[in-house]
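Submission checklist for the structure archive. All mandatory fields must be present; incomplete records are returned to the submitter.

[x] Identifier: M23ase beta-sheet core domain-containing protein
[x] Organism: Winkia neuii
[x] Residue count: 415
[x] Sequence attached
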Amino acid sequence: MKKFLAASMAVLLSASFATSAFADERGDAVNKRDSAAQREAKARSALEGINADLSKSALELDKVNAALPGAQKSLADAQSQFGAAQRKHQQVADQLDVAKAEQQRLVDKIDSSKKEADATAAKIAAVAAKAYRQNGRSATLRLAMTSATTEQFSKASAAADQVSRAESANLANVEAELANTRNAEDRQNALTQQIAGLEAEARKTAQAAESAAKAQQKRLEDLGALKQKNEALSKELNARKGEAQKDLDAASKDVAKYQGKINELDQKNLAGGAGAPAPTGGIFIHPVAGPLIVTSPWGYRTHPILGTAILHEGVDLGNACGTPQYATADGTVAEVGDYDTGGNGVMINHGVIGGSSWVTMHLHLQQYVVGPGQHVKQGQLIGYTGATGRVTGCHAHYEVHQNGQTIDPMSLPGF
């Protein structure tokens, strides 16, 4: 009897150790697979972002390349118009210089004519004064006192009159020329003013053409800078794309590797025996008491924190922090601890039931009250609902793995 008990105990201990070793090895593989899956999702998201940026950059580059010929032609046209405006302005400016020179010549001529007229007038006045003195009393007295004859006196007087008439005629000519010059000056002033207006207009046109040419030059330079920027960005993005693709390939390879390891372990677990038959009413009970309120179903979704598309391997149930959670079937605790983004968690290996290997996980726990290797009964308290890990609030996260693959817990009988 003692030998039988000892043998039975040895078998039980051996089975317990085997189950614990299996759970540890499988749990390690699951952790590594999940970590690789996160890296895979992150790399895929990064690659998608890079591809989107590449498409955007390529579109911008196409727009720039399409706009460049038009910008180059616009610049050439603007520069041509500026050159024509410059030549026109220079032509009118030269005309204005000639007009101003003619205007100054007339001013100088008027000054000279005025001086000549003043000198002639002074000369006439001097002759008149002299004639007056000669024809006056003093002249008569001098004539009486000299031996001059009346005939000589008459000749002298006639000569003085002749000089006076000649100077008067000269003065009249000078004054007539002065009047003509002043008329010419008035006409020249009007012409110069007109040309000055044309010059101002031509200068304004040239300045506007220059501004337009500079604007087109800047536009072309901006397009060139934008082209260089997008070319550099595309080069950088392509380099990053290569690295992201390498990361994705490596992560995908690791996911496949560890999933294969999990499958291998589950096959060994299955090969160990048929296990217990599946209960007619379903294998599992609910992980929490009360009706189940699904806040996030099983399947692919956008992670609420990471913002990337990732497989949600369990179901999130609305549940307040501190609410008890229970083992959903008999089994052995394979692992407890911090599951990174999953926070505090408990993994339970339920062995082979109904021809399938079953493992369940409870994540984001506030606290767990079981330990690795501990056998738990269906409905036994294993921990309390929390919000540990990468979450947005309190809830119960429950996973079911059948033969190494996650399934939708809500598809189970009784759920």
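[x] Structure attached
Curator remark: The longest strand covers residues 356-368. Confidence is low (pLDDT under 50) at residues 1-17, 137-141.
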